[in-house]
Amino acid sequence: MALSDIATLMDNKKYSDLTISCHGHNFKVHKAIMCSASSVIAAACDNDMKEKETGVIEHDEYDTDTVERMIAYVYTQTYDVEKALYLTEHTEDLHAGTTLPDVNEMLVAHARVFAIGDYYDMPKLKDLAVENFLEVSRVGWEVEGFIEVIKEVNKLTSTDHPELRNVLRLIAMEHITELTKKDDFMTQLAGLKEGQDFAADMLRVVVLHHDEERASLNEDLKTANELAEQVTDRIKRLED
């Protein structure tokens, strides 16, 4: 079956024989397609588990948007985050009313897709999520709210699968100057419970960055003093 034919099945519920239930929302899907994409889903459907008997996979680990993107990828080999909303009724550990710039909302959405790809053993979905995460950061990056992206990535991923964490570090290093100029960023980073190794790495880079800046300033000052001495000597010779 061609990819285009599989994609058309995503919107055709007539022959669906499996349901993924997430926070009260039921996604009607096709067992053969989902099982071929995920060994985890296949195991749930093949083994003597309740999913095999009921034809329903209960999934409450991630929000409905993330589950929908995972399903879209299985059928189309891509997914969309244009409608990404960071705050949902299922988002935890955030103060009510917290908002993020669009770019950071998208980074969080891609991070969640990576995590669900890891959860369901979909390596290619994880790779795509990492690529999209990096691409979004290249197109537009915002220091405001970036600490929330760091929290989310380190909460969702493990050191056993560091692909996204490594990309996050790369992005942070590229914007180290902007981050250190943000008054409350370093305070929040130092108190970060999720990903203490990331916080430690960042703090080491910040110290190194400031040491390099200080060394550069000292070198500039030395050069300026030498020029000043040369000018003074020239003035004295002219006066003599």
Average of pLDDT: 78
The share of residues in helices is 55-70%
Overall geometric form = elongated
Largest sheet: 3 strands, mixed
Strand element count? 3
Category by helix and strand content = mainly alpha
Low-confidence stretches: 83-100
Number of helices: 12
Strand content: 5-15%
Biggest sheet strand order reads 2-1-3
**Gyration radius, in Å:** 25 Å
Order of helices and strands: HEEHHHEHHHHHHHH
What count of structural domains? 2
Distance between the termini: 95 Å
Task: Please name the defining characteristics of this protein.
240 residues, mainly alpha, Potassium Channel Kv1.1, Chain A
Describe the overall structure.
- The protein is 64% helix and 5% strand.
- Helix 6 runs parallel beside helix 8 (146-156).
- It has helices spanning 3-9, 31-37, 39-46, 50-54, 64-76, 102-119, 123-139, 146-156, 163-174, 176-181, 185-190, 196-239, and strands spanning 18-22, 25-29, 56-58.
- The radius of gyration is 25 Å and the shape is elongated.
- It is mainly alpha-helical and 240 residues long.
- 30% of the residues are buried.
Brief synopsis:
With 240 residues, this protein is mainly alpha-helical.
Topology:
Blueprint lengths: L2 H7 L8 E5 L2 E5 L1 H7 L1 H8 L3 H5 L1 E3 L5 H13 L25 H18 L3 H17 L6 H11 L6 H12 L1 H6 L3 H6 L5 H44 L1
Parallel strand pairs: 1-3
Antiparallel strand pairs: 1-2
